[in-house]
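Ticket 4471: requesting a sanity check on a complex prediction with zinc ion. Repro inputs:
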Amino acid sequence: MDYLGEVIALGIDSVIFGICLKQYFHCKNAITAVKGAEFHEVGPSVEDLVNKSTNSKIDYVAIRGIVKPLGKPLTSISDKKLTGVVQKFKIKEHVVARTTAGFWSDQKRTVHKVYNTVPFALQQGRHSIEVLEPLSADILDMDVVSNTFKPTVPSFADHLWGFFTGVRQRGLQSTEKLLREGAIMTGVGELTKTKSNTLVLQPPLNGTPFYLTSMSISSLLRKLDDRKKTYRLLCLMFGAIGMLIGGIVFRRYWKERTEQRLAEELRQSLAASRKERRQRVRDTDLREDQICVVCRTNPREIILLPCGHVCLCEDCSEDITTDCPMCRTPIAQKAAAYII
Ligand SMILES: [Zn+2]
Ligand SMILES: [Zn+2]
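Returned structure tokens:
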């Protein structure tokens, strides 16, 4: 296929453009939703609000409170004094890898990732709201409690192995993040009252994003706005690339079509001038057995093979391509016949 490269590039570009556009609208809708959400501190006002609402449910609300585990909290791996409710432990391998171009480049890959959670609530005095599914939050702010890098000391065998495989380990980075007990957090999501009369904050069913953040609402909005701007920029960039590739394809196609049209015009004008020249040199004084069986004007000029009939002038033979008009034998070949 002539345009395979361009089509593949355009396909990849459209996929990236589509993803960026989707993210852009996701951010845009999230900003509208967060702006529309009422802000409350955990307390009697929230409880009143839920009691007054239909189905004991508020679709989207922002609630601030202090993180409190509903049971035994998690303990940090690196610092036993620290406790929390959501823990993320990640080990990344730093490697120097040989790229296909032959250069060595620094790369990171996650080799191990663990999440731990315990049930927890946002609390204020004796009032509390339980938070469900914290890991499905779009933004989940946690404190980095440890971030260590342990370099690998390579042996001679490692060097040799690295040379052949093209991958050399530089070291391991372990990061631990913790949503700490006692942290002041704002949860933005759906608030419902369960049958057992407890208030629950969870990811909204309608797909609006769920946030658990230590930022204020205005900072959260600013962050979302920054994301929106980034995606808008990416959309513009990939859109422009797509248009550029499309333009190149269209230009090539147009050029090829114009060339084909010009070639066809040239062929036709040559054929017409040949026809005219033939007409000028033709005999007009012909016997019945010498004139073309189709137009009955021009002399017979063409022999049809394999039947061997000489019955057509050159002009008529251009339109007759399948069977001989005299005996219906399929035409395999035509040639000029010279009758002296
Ligand atoms: Zn004819
Ligand atoms: Zn024939």
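Notes from triage: The two ends are 52 Å apart (CA to CA). Leaving this open until the requester confirms.
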